[in-house]
Prior knowledge:
Layout: H1 3-16, H2 22-52, H3 56-64, H4 70-102
Helix pairs in contact: 2-4, 3-4
Amino acid sequence: MNTDTRVIVQASAQRLFPDLDLDQVLAELLLERARKNLIKYRTLARQFEARYGQDFDAFRHKITNSEPAFEVEQDYFDWEMAVTGSADMEEEIQRLQALVQSL
């Protein structure tokens, strides 16, 4: 990061997070992003649950024991990504919350 960028980032961080140092600001911003991602993934998973009227495990069992249409197979991969992404973000949130508390 060059000097001009660093000065701008520090000034913005000070205005937006006056009680936090730069490490704390970064940790808080990362935590906020992880929470937004978790909401996005959970929303997508709920949409698939509503569309197919079942949870992902039941859907996976059905799909892996059949030859689904292309669209259904694509939904499977997107749903799997949503479930995996949710789990990843939950872990990330726990890690970042622990970091924020330690700073």
